[in-house]
Design goal:
The structure holds 2 protein chains of 2 kinds. Chain A is 55% helix and 5% strand. Classes of the chains: A mainly alpha, B alpha/beta. The structure holds adenosine-5'-diphosphate and magnesium ion.
């Protein structure tokens, strides 16, 4: 989440005060990413230092200063909007690491571990979905941000599902863990199909 | 009150070497107004569970109770009446009859149940209106989009005095926004007091449910916990056990 460029975007609509920027930032992200006022003022100082924003009220307290975007700031904003973020490096994903570790430990039933995470993820998804349940009062920016989060969580569940299936096929988990809260699945049903 | 109860329900298909335990000892209660999701991979027994819950198939062992009445002792006629009157089904596809308009599709279960045609059509029209489909009433299925077809199917499944809605991968091949509309419609039916079971492999769909049961090789292995109350999520009060 680039606070810097989001503030530039808000300034591109017209000059604004810090408190105003904070309000509008939170409104434009549907309150999904809260922002503290200190962050706003530090960011404004940096924008000013880099020549992307300016203010006439040089001697005033930062709360009284009205900021506007410069033409260099406008160029920077336009460039940023069209530059894809770097997604080529996989993030170090703690959940992926946990499953990889679990799949190697003979005393751990990796399928039970997967189910613990799957359940947790679905519960978090239920909470997000609940927040967009009331369609009549659904704020557009909020809906977009919630959808992004739901897609992200959904992709994690899908990865768990495919890991579950792939590990079964590979028969990694031959040793059922009797101490686990979940039943170890002794089955004659067709997993192999 | 529980609209649907499965008590230690098991289903075995085939015999001898071809025997398949499709379901094993499933216990499930679905309260009035609640939406239960059943999540599991392909082959885990989701469709079998739904067919047995809707009396389309017999359990091998165990009991299905609908509106407090066990289906074990029920006659064929009783069950047929239950399927016409009390239970609505939505499947991934094959939901609508191609030769009938949207309105006729929705009114058909009422007419089959002996409701006079005129009255059935009025009730069906109301169901379509409630779901924002009034202007599609005279369209045939092939004149509707996939999302509209599925919404008409839901209108048909909840028309009249249905108490139980059973949906099998109801958003099948729909895109995510159409899938969301389908779930919103099912939820709206629940808010009117219908009990619903949606089976799916899709976590986004399942996340509309009050409670999600996880199925694996025919067994209910886990389920979501109700959010601890009064837990806060993003500064908003979370949903209670069920409204
Ligand atoms: N009519 C049938 N005859 C034999 N086996 C069946 C029949 N229907 C389902 N099965 C088997 O029962 C298991 C559960 O199937 P199903 O309920 O369709 O799962 P899901 O809907 O979760 O994909 C599978 O192994 C499937 O092959
Ligand atoms: Mg199925």
């Amino acid at each position: 989440m680039s606070v810097r460029h989001s503030l530039l975007a808000l300034l591109s609509e017209g000059p604004k005060y810090g408190f105003q920027l904070r309000q509008e930032f939170e409104a434009s992200t549907g309150d999904v990413w809260p922002l503290n006022v200190g962050q706003v003022y530090t960011t404004l100082q940096r924008l000013e230092r880099d020549g992307y924003a300016e203010s006439d009220d040089i001697d005033a307290d930062e709360r009284q200063r009205n900021y506007r975007i410069t033409s260099k700031g406008n160029e920077e904003l336009s460039h940023w909007l069209r530059t894809p973020p770097d997604l080529s490096e996989p993030p170090r994903d703690e959940l992926v690491i946990k499953i990889l570790v679990a799949s190697r430990l003979p005393e751990v039933n990796v399928h039970d571990v997967i189910q613990v995470h799957r359940r947790y993820l679905v519960q978090v998804m239920q909470q997000w979905t609940h927040l967009k349940e009331d369609e009549a009062s659904l704020d557009l920016a909020f809906a977009l941000a919630v959808d992004a989060e739901l897609f992200r969580l959904d992709s994690v569940v899908r990865w768990l599902d495919s890991a579950d299936g792939r590990l079964r096929r590979a028969n990694v988990s031959e040793v059922p863990n009797e101490s686990s809260g979940l039943p170890s699945n002794q089955k004659k049903t067709g997993v192999a199909q | 009150m529980s609209i649907l109860e499965l008590r230690r329900v098991s289903k075995v298909y085939g015999e001898g070497t071809t025997e398949v335990d499709a379901l094993t000892d499933i216990d499930l209660a679905v309260e009035q107004g609640s939406l239960v999701g059943v999540m599991g991979p392909s082959g885990s027994g989701k469709s079998t569970l739904l067919s047995i819950a809707g009396s389309l198939e017999e359990p091998t062992r165990g009991e299905v109770v609908i509106l407090g009445k066990s289906l074990s002792g029920a006659s064929r006629n009783d069950k047929a009446r239950l399927r016409r009157r009390t239970v609505g089904y939505v499947f991934q596809d094959f939901n609508l009859l191609a030769g009938l308009t949207a309105l006729e599709n929705v009114s058909m279960p009422l007419e089959l149940d002996g409701v006079a045609m005129k009255r059935a059509r009025v009730t069906a029209m109301q169901a379509l209106e409630q779901l924002g489909l009034a202007e599609r009433a005279d369209h045939f299925p092939d004149q509707l989009s996939g999302g509209e077809r599925q919404r008409v199917a839901i209108a048909r499944a909840v028309v009249g005095e249905r108490r139980l809605l059973l949906a099998d991968e109801p958003s099948g091949a729909l895109d995510s926004l159409n899938g969301e509309s389908v779930m919103r419609m099912i939820l709206a039916a629940c808010h009117r007091g219908v009990a619903a079971v949606v089976v799916t492999h899709d976590a986004t769909l399942a996340s509309w449910a009050d409670r999600v049961v996880f199925l694996r090789d025919g067994k209910a292995v886990d389920e979501t916990l109700p959010p601890p109350s009064p837990e806060q999520f993003l500064g908003q009060p979370s949903r209670g056990p069920s409204s």
